[in-house]
Amino acid sequence: MILYYAAGGGLGHLTRGRALLHTLGIDAPVAMMTASRFAADRRVSGENRIVAIPSELAGDRAGYRRWLIEAIDRLAPEAIYLDAFPAGILGEFAGFPFPPNVPLYHVARILRWDAYRPLPEGALPLFDATYVTEPLASPHEEAVAARSGSMLPIDLIDPPVEAGLPPIVTDEARNAPLWLVVHSGPDDEIGELLDYASQSAGAEGIEPRIVLVAPSSPAGASGAISRIDFYPARLLFPHADRIITGCGFNAMRQTLPWRSRHRFIPFPRRYDDQYLRAARRRALI
Q1: What is the mean pLDDT of residues 130-153?
Q2: DSSP-based three-state secondary structure for 117
Q3: Residue 222 belongs to what domain range?
Q4: Which of 2, 111, 212, 273 is 20 to 30 A from 140 via CA?
Q5: For residue 225, what pLDDT is reported?
Q6: Cα-to-chain-centroid distance, residue 177
Q7: Residue 269's CATH number
Q8: Contacts of 207 (CB under 8 A, 6+ apart)
Q9: How many domains are there within the chain?
Q10: CB contact set of 109 (below 8 Å; sequence gap of 6+)
């Protein structure tokens, strides 16, 4: 059994985890340890076993470490993957007693290293390898490389999905451009993306059909805007005349083939650097 540690509470860690496992061709049973509110949605987590991180341990690094030691011992994984944060989201894996002779891998994406690095109290784990899913800033890359047997750049491939597309997207009789606003939250950011879409349409003199692809509608959203809860949203992108998203890892990765149709707004995150990701995309346009 493989343990994939994806502690974040949102959608991105699970989506990236499934893409990595598919890209590597791992067919062993997988347990995904996560605090994501989307973990129970099988569209997101697939057939993987979910190990829920107890919410009462949030912020309690010592108690969380004790729980992790017991959970990992009980699961007895044959390999462990740590997503995004090399020492965990709380620094919980700095100096951690990982089981001996169990391969340990890191799945790296951009971090605001100046914000994250003071968190771990102790050395980063020693990784057999780090899979680099996007270019890292130099201080981040150097720190992880010093603790990794090898640094392996990898282009992620999402697992195939058999899902019928909603008529609201595939209706060929529509007489207006289709604009997709795609975001899983929070609500204020969804609202900002919807405002951006409306303002852009007005400035360009276009009357598009704006469809929000999100788990829920934010309070105060216009009743004239349609919403669908559809995952994975990437299946909709070939049908859109415009795609509007934030600058999370998966949103930017999955829109790359459609970048001429893509508009994006970076949002502030504690550790993720969406502004760097946005700057890199602008350089490609």
Answers
A1: 97
A2: coil
A3: 167-282
A4: 2
A5: 78
A6: 28
A7: 3.40.50.2000
A8: 176, 201
A9: 2
A10: 16, 84, 133, 134, 136, 249, 272
